[in-house]
Amino acid sequence: MSRPELRVDTERFRSNIRAVRDRIAPSALMIVLKDDAYGHGLRWAVEAARGMGVDWYGAYDVRSGVEARRVLGDAGRIFAWATSTDDEVDEALRARIDLGVGSAEYLSRITALAARRGVRARIHLKIDTGLHRNGLLPAEWERTIAEVRAGEAAEHLELVGIWSHLAEASDDEDDEAQTLFLDAVRVAEQSGATPEALHLTASAASWWRPELRGSVSRIGAFCYGVRSADGPDLAGVAPVAELTATVVDIVDGDAVVGIGAFDGIPSTLAGARVGTPAGARELLRIDAATSVVEGWPGMRIGDSVWMFGAGDHGESSATTLAERIDTVGEEILTRLTARIRRVSTP
Ligand SMILES: *Cc1c(COP(=O)(O)O)cnc(C)c1O
What is the CATH number of the domain that holds 245? Predict the structure, then answer.
């Protein structure tokens, strides 16, 4: 039985990046790479983005940052924001990865490790602007900035950036978060610091709320063509990945395809529209290793079915599938298992 394939269209990825960059300029794009580039493949994403001169890479953890560094060589700036062990911080310093710092404890470990190595750690200090998911509290900000300045004077640290993350639950909350963020930037600047990278927004806020953008915007979903759940289509942005499976049997006029719940397809997606050589058909059932799709005239074993994609064969997008089960497109993409072969166009 042929394996299902996740096909990633590199030209579409490039044109999404182009559309995102045009939209957010002069804010610089930091392309977010977490979860193996949202299931598309980190190496592929970094190579394609590097080819377009993307300067900033958001790696989440040090391990992915190191992988990105292998592809990038000396080029590019890599930002890893997961609080990491001493060994990982050591690796990050060697690979010249910028570290996101959201606690005083992490700051002092990084400072000590940089001092031991005789290098300057490049850090982006995170202010908690209301999400309560890692980040320094406004009450401890001034004290922490003073520590950072001391670390800079001792040549163990370089404050490259200040950042936070938005809830994107309501405009009012995001506005309040920005006020706290700008207060934090002001305190840093009054201390004489000159962080070049100020970043607050991810895909949705970067696209829709220009007034919230900093000098850098951290964007994952929209670059991969994953729109927000319950959000509109975006001009110039289309899904990069399509998931195909093969018809392996025909039963009672319906097509049995070789992909199922064990491959990461939620069984609750029954009823969704998938693509076939004859256009949209209903996905009738998802079993463990196979699924059943409403038949079409002339169907044959070996035909392709598009489980999701850009709609070229009548299939839904990953986000449209996700909306059926109250989740986000990223989740459909990132839960696909290793049995699914990843292929990319040049
Ligand atoms: C995932 C993530 C992003 C990117 O979010 P998208 O909505 O996919 O653009 C940005 N910043 C942080 C901290 C994240 O965890």
Answer: 2.40.37.10
Clarify whether residues 216 and 251 are in a common domain.
no
**34: Cβ below 6 Å to ligand 1?**
yes
Is residue 235 domain-resident?
Answer: no
Does the CB atom of residue 202 touch ligand 1 within 6 A? yes
Of 190, 224, 258, the last residue of a domain is 224
Q: Is the CB of 203 under 6 A from ligand 1?
A: yes
259 and 170 share one domain:
no
Q: Is the pTM of this model over 0.90?
A: yes
Model pLDDT, residue 346: 86
Mutate to test the pocket of ligand 1, among 218, 224, 227, 237 (most ligand atoms within 8 A of CB): 218
Q: Is residue 216 part of a domain?
A: yes
Mean pLDDT computed over 56-76: 97
Domain containing 110 equals 10-224
The predicted pLDDT at position 132 comes to 85
* 2 occurs within a structural domain: no
SS3 annotation, the chain: CCCCEEEECHHHHHHHHHHHHHHHCCCEEEEECHHHHHCCCHHHHHHHHHHCCCCEEECCCHHHHHHHHHHHCCCCEEEECCCCCHHHHHHHHHCCEEEEECCHHHHHHHHHHHHHHCCCEEEEEEECCCCCCCCECHHHHHHHHHHHHHHHHCCCEEEEEEECCCCCCCHHHHHHHHHHHHHHHHHHHHCCCCCCEEECCCHHHHHHCHHHCCCEEEECHHHHCCCCCCCCCCCCCCCCEEEEEEEEEEECCEEEECCCHHHCCCHHHCCCEEEECCEEEEEEEECCCCEEECCCCCCCCCCEEEEECCCCCCCCCHHHHHHHCCCCHHHHHHCCCCCCEEEECC
Do 270 and 218 have their domain in common?
no
Model pLDDT for residues 220-268, shown as the tens digit of each residue = 999 999 999 999 999 999 999 999 999 999 999 999 999 999 999 999 9
What proportion of the chain, given as a percentage, has pLDDT over 90?
Answer: 97
